[in-house]
Amino acid sequence: DRSGGHVSVNEPSPSDSNVVWAGTSAGRIFVTTNARAADPASIQWKRIDPSSSADPARYPTDVYVDPSDPNHAYITYSGYNHVTPDTPGHIFEVRYSPSTGTATFTSLDGTGSKALGDLPVGTIERDEKNGDLYIGTDFGVAKQKGSRNGWQHASPGIPTTTIPYLKIDQENRVMYVTTHGFGAWTLKLS
Q1: Is the pTM of this model over 0.90?
Q2: 13 and which of 34, 70, 130, 133 could share a cystine (Cβ 3.0–4.6 Å)?
Q3: Measured distance CA(83)–CA(79) in Å, rounded
Q4: What Å distances lie between residue 98 and 19, 58, 71, 124, 182, CA to CA?
Protein backbone atom coordinates (compact mmCIF):
# COMPACT_ATOMS: atom_id res chain seq x y z
CA ASP A 1 0.00 0.00 0.00
CA ARG A 2 2.34 2.70 -1.31
CA SER A 3 5.11 1.54 1.02
CA GLY A 4 8.70 2.67 0.83
CA GLY A 5 10.04 5.80 -0.76
CA HIS A 6 11.17 9.06 0.72
CA VAL A 7 9.62 12.45 1.54
CA SER A 8 9.36 14.16 -1.84
CA VAL A 9 7.58 17.35 -0.84
CA ASN A 10 6.54 19.21 2.30
CA GLU A 11 4.80 22.53 2.70
CA PRO A 12 3.91 24.44 5.88
CA SER A 13 0.69 26.41 6.03
CA PRO A 14 1.23 30.17 5.72
CA SER A 15 -1.62 30.85 8.16
CA ASP A 16 -1.00 28.17 10.82
CA SER A 17 2.57 27.09 11.54
CA ASN A 18 1.31 23.94 13.28
CA VAL A 19 -0.06 22.59 9.99
CA VAL A 20 2.35 20.99 7.52
CA TRP A 21 1.47 18.89 4.45
CA ALA A 22 3.89 16.25 3.12
CA GLY A 23 4.05 13.62 0.40
CA THR A 24 6.26 10.61 -0.24
CA SER A 25 7.70 9.39 -3.50
CA ALA A 26 5.33 6.40 -3.36
CA GLY A 27 2.27 8.69 -3.35
CA ARG A 28 1.41 8.82 0.35
CA ILE A 29 0.05 12.16 1.58
CA PHE A 30 0.27 13.26 5.23
CA VAL A 31 -0.85 16.25 7.31
CA THR A 32 0.18 17.25 10.82
CA THR A 33 -1.63 19.82 12.94
CA ASN A 34 0.96 19.98 15.75
CA ALA A 35 4.23 20.64 13.90
CA ARG A 36 5.40 23.12 16.55
CA ALA A 37 5.12 20.71 19.46
CA ALA A 38 7.86 21.22 22.04
CA ASP A 39 8.76 17.54 21.88
CA PRO A 40 9.41 16.53 18.24
CA ALA A 41 8.56 12.92 19.12
CA SER A 42 4.99 14.00 19.89
CA ILE A 43 4.32 15.39 16.40
CA GLN A 44 1.55 13.30 14.88
CA TRP A 45 1.22 12.80 11.14
CA LYS A 46 -2.11 11.67 9.71
CA ARG A 47 -2.00 9.75 6.44
CA ILE A 48 -4.86 11.12 4.33
CA ASP A 49 -4.46 9.38 0.95
CA PRO A 50 -6.30 6.16 1.95
CA SER A 51 -9.43 8.20 2.68
CA SER A 52 -9.86 8.82 -1.02
CA SER A 53 -9.61 6.49 -3.97
CA ALA A 54 -9.18 9.46 -6.30
CA ASP A 55 -5.49 10.25 -5.83
CA PRO A 56 -2.87 8.35 -7.85
CA ALA A 57 -0.13 6.23 -6.32
CA ARG A 58 2.48 8.31 -8.16
CA TYR A 59 5.18 10.80 -7.19
CA PRO A 60 3.65 13.99 -5.69
CA THR A 61 5.68 16.94 -6.97
CA ASP A 62 4.27 20.00 -5.20
CA VAL A 63 1.80 21.13 -2.55
CA TYR A 64 0.30 24.63 -2.47
CA VAL A 65 -1.43 25.32 0.86
CA ASP A 66 -4.23 27.89 0.78
CA PRO A 67 -2.95 30.95 2.71
CA SER A 68 -6.39 31.52 4.24
CA ASP A 69 -7.24 27.88 5.08
CA PRO A 70 -4.54 25.50 6.38
CA ASN A 71 -6.79 22.50 5.66
CA HIS A 72 -7.12 23.27 1.94
CA ALA A 73 -4.35 22.55 -0.56
CA TYR A 74 -3.55 21.77 -4.18
CA ILE A 75 -1.31 18.78 -4.94
CA THR A 76 0.39 17.94 -8.24
CA TYR A 77 1.68 14.58 -9.46
CA SER A 78 4.29 13.45 -11.94
CA GLY A 79 4.02 10.41 -14.16
CA TYR A 80 1.35 9.28 -16.57
CA ASN A 81 -2.21 8.05 -16.14
CA HIS A 82 -1.46 4.76 -17.90
CA VAL A 83 0.67 3.82 -14.87
CA THR A 84 -2.32 4.27 -12.54
CA PRO A 85 -5.34 3.79 -14.86
CA ASP A 86 -7.81 3.36 -11.99
CA THR A 87 -6.74 6.67 -10.43
CA PRO A 88 -5.84 9.11 -13.21
CA GLY A 89 -5.02 12.74 -12.64
CA HIS A 90 -2.20 15.22 -12.13
CA ILE A 91 -3.76 18.13 -10.21
CA PHE A 92 -5.97 17.73 -7.16
CA GLU A 93 -7.74 20.13 -4.87
CA VAL A 94 -7.63 18.58 -1.40
CA ARG A 95 -9.74 19.43 1.63
CA TYR A 96 -8.67 17.91 4.93
CA SER A 97 -10.98 17.55 7.94
CA PRO A 98 -8.94 17.48 11.17
CA SER A 99 -12.01 16.39 13.15
CA THR A 100 -12.49 13.21 11.11
CA GLY A 101 -8.91 12.74 9.88
CA THR A 102 -10.15 12.31 6.31
CA ALA A 103 -9.64 14.23 3.10
CA THR A 104 -11.44 14.77 -0.18
CA PHE A 105 -9.36 14.75 -3.38
CA THR A 106 -10.98 16.44 -6.40
CA SER A 107 -9.27 16.20 -9.78
CA LEU A 108 -8.78 19.50 -11.59
CA ASP A 109 -7.40 17.95 -14.80
CA GLY A 110 -10.63 18.79 -16.63
CA THR A 111 -12.44 17.05 -19.45
CA GLY A 112 -13.06 17.61 -23.12
CA SER A 113 -11.16 20.03 -25.31
CA LYS A 114 -9.82 22.09 -22.39
CA ALA A 115 -8.57 19.12 -20.38
CA LEU A 116 -4.96 19.10 -19.29
CA GLY A 117 -4.21 15.77 -20.94
CA ASP A 118 -1.92 13.03 -19.72
CA LEU A 119 1.24 14.94 -18.91
CA PRO A 120 3.32 15.21 -15.76
CA VAL A 121 2.92 18.32 -13.60
CA GLY A 122 5.87 19.52 -11.55
CA THR A 123 4.64 22.56 -9.65
CA ILE A 124 1.57 24.64 -8.81
CA GLU A 125 0.84 28.19 -7.64
CA ARG A 126 -2.40 30.10 -7.13
CA ASP A 127 -2.88 33.79 -7.93
CA GLU A 128 -4.57 34.88 -4.72
CA LYS A 129 -6.00 38.02 -6.31
CA ASN A 130 -8.32 36.17 -8.70
CA GLY A 131 -8.02 32.46 -7.84
CA ASP A 132 -6.28 31.45 -11.09
CA LEU A 133 -4.11 28.33 -10.87
CA TYR A 134 -0.78 28.04 -12.68
CA ILE A 135 1.05 24.77 -13.21
CA GLY A 136 4.44 23.87 -14.60
CA THR A 137 4.27 20.88 -16.93
CA ASP A 138 6.76 19.04 -19.11
CA PHE A 139 5.63 21.37 -21.94
CA GLY A 140 5.48 24.81 -20.33
CA VAL A 141 3.13 26.75 -18.06
CA ALA A 142 -0.64 26.24 -18.09
CA LYS A 143 -3.35 28.31 -16.45
CA GLN A 144 -6.82 27.55 -15.15
CA LYS A 145 -9.02 30.55 -14.47
CA GLY A 146 -10.76 30.89 -11.12
CA SER A 147 -13.96 29.65 -12.77
CA ARG A 148 -12.28 26.24 -13.31
CA ASN A 149 -13.26 26.05 -16.97
CA GLY A 150 -10.24 24.15 -18.29
CA TRP A 151 -6.55 24.69 -18.94
CA GLN A 152 -4.84 27.00 -21.42
CA HIS A 153 -1.26 27.84 -22.37
CA ALA A 154 -0.04 30.66 -20.13
CA SER A 155 3.54 31.46 -20.98
CA PRO A 156 3.96 33.19 -24.34
CA GLY A 157 7.64 33.55 -25.14
CA ILE A 158 8.86 30.98 -22.63
CA PRO A 159 10.46 27.93 -24.30
CA THR A 160 8.37 24.77 -24.51
CA THR A 161 10.23 22.73 -21.90
CA THR A 162 9.89 21.22 -18.45
CA ILE A 163 8.90 23.77 -15.79
CA PRO A 164 9.99 22.42 -12.39
CA TYR A 165 9.22 25.51 -10.28
CA LEU A 166 6.84 28.46 -10.18
CA LYS A 167 6.57 31.14 -7.50
CA ILE A 168 4.16 34.08 -7.48
CA ASP A 169 5.09 37.35 -5.80
CA GLN A 170 1.49 38.16 -4.87
CA GLU A 171 2.17 41.76 -3.86
CA ASN A 172 4.07 42.76 -7.02
CA ARG A 173 1.95 40.59 -9.38
CA VAL A 174 4.94 38.73 -10.88
CA MET A 175 5.38 34.99 -11.39
CA TYR A 176 8.90 33.58 -11.44
CA VAL A 177 9.39 30.57 -13.70
CA THR A 178 12.36 28.23 -13.84
CA THR A 179 12.90 25.99 -16.83
CA HIS A 180 14.90 22.86 -17.46
CA GLY A 181 17.89 24.11 -19.43
CA PHE A 182 16.48 27.44 -20.68
CA GLY A 183 17.01 29.76 -17.69
CA ALA A 184 14.60 31.60 -15.42
CA TRP A 185 11.81 33.89 -16.56
CA THR A 186 9.27 36.31 -15.16
CA LEU A 187 5.65 36.63 -16.15
CA LYS A 188 3.71 39.79 -15.24
CA LEU A 189 0.23 38.90 -13.97
CA SER A 190 -2.72 41.09 -14.90
Answers
A1: yes
A2: 70
A3: 7
A4: 10, 24, 8, 24, 42
